[in-house]
């Protein structure tokens, strides 16, 4: 048995539990939202900063607002100056003025974003140079890639549709060579094919608009027409022709890479547990469960505290949100010292201490301690202490049944008197409840507290008192109520005002 935090070697532990913390070595992550922000990431293998599309949330730390921020944080620097005359550099292919990196990227004219080709990174990047009179200035990233970058020399209109492997959803257009039309699709945000345009006008400008023809559709294409009318796709619709000349529609198939999400689930460390869900793409996504006290309101003078317990079925750690008094009755012990001079912080106030415990200052430490004085006047039923030794006797005024709601909290109490005062223990059936684990706690007055009630907690609990002279027992029945809901359905009918309505 044992917990899952166990590895065969130190190397295995480091590999699983030490994620890459250097932002410069992390893979760029576009995130999981629907926004579009141009950011910069560092390519460690090439020692270069490149742009990518960030969706606005999640992602990792390899994300910078500007090229200068990226290079200042991650770039390894220029090579050291040579002490001898360097050899002549190899001849570089000539670059036209329309692809030469601008001498200045200072904004000018209208504050409009445009794209330019950066010779050093060999990529198209955005800047506020829309109003500048330079040749290396393009309206869209795709236009820049066609003139100078990765799409140069490629017949983009004949290329297949490829939305890319990332998980963004950026509206773009592609040219459908079957229908000779420009159609919308969702671009993932990274990589992808060259058949991509930012606007429909750009697509038609490059590939041509569909001619106005009175195309005669074969008479036996009805089912394909209906298929194209009703189909819904995550990325885009791919159109093809059948042997009979009918136009057929199908969804563009994109290979989904779940590995980054799987690694993210492995790296995620959650204090209060983790939720896992499988998305429409078949990839599992993980998120940390919110603090148990999030959204819980407590009465004045009380504070919400997260209490840990183990699920009785799965033995997984669970947390319950309890409201506790921040200033309990009683006083802290007068003389407090800490061993070894070490500072310990067990609590912020009394709410962090179980039972009647007080949060007490001891030098630089904050400790949970039993109060030095009685926390409250002794109950009338326990005030009697016989002068002579006497075995425990049950008080008949003990509440014989306690009722609570599923998911709530129940406190079971039993009262005895005897001399000396008896020790209280609890049992359910043949099982003794010591209050140190799970959802059970023994309070300072001998009461049994059960948190996060389940319906199968209902039953009889036995309270046993023992002071060495004898024993006594009482039974307390716990009833856990389960909310019941139902859906009433009845045929529609018309009822006149003032008449009676009967629901079967």
UniProtKB/TrEMBL annotation:
Which Pfam families has this protein been placed in? I-set (PF07679), Kunitz_BPTI (PF00014), WAP (PF00095)
Alphabetical list of Gene3D superfamilies matching this protein: Elafin-like, Immunoglobulins, Pancreatic trypsin inhibitor Kunitz domain
SUPFAM superfamilies (alphabetical): BPTI-like, Elafin-like, Immunoglobulin
One GO term in the molecular function aspect is: receptor antagonist activity
Keywords recorded for this protein, A-Z: Disulfide bond, Glycoprotein, Immunoglobulin domain, Protease inhibitor, Secreted, Serine protease inhibitor, Signal
Q: Where is this region: Disordered?
A: 78-100
Which part of the chain is the BPTI/Kunitz inhibitor domain? Answer: 24-74, 99-148, 157-207
Which InterPro entries does the record cross-reference, listed alphabetically? Elafin-like_sf, Ig-like_dom, Ig-like_dom_sf, Ig-like_fold, Ig_I-set, Ig_sub, Ig_sub2, Kunitz_BPTI
Transferase as a keyword of this entry, yes or no, is no
PROSITE patterns from the entry?
BPTI_KUNITZ_1, BPTI_KUNITZ_2, IG_LIKE, WAP
**Cellular component, GO annotation:** extracellular space
Pinpoint the WAP domain residues.
325-372
Subcellular location field: Secreted
Q: Which domain of life is it from?
A: Eukaryota
Domain Ig-like stretches: 386-479
Q: Which family does it belong to?
A: Belongs to the hemolin family.
Q: Could you identify this protein by its name?
A: Hemolin
**What organism does the record attribute this protein to?**
Pectinophora gossypiella
Upper lineage: Eukaryota, Metazoa, Ecdysozoa, Arthropoda, Hexapoda
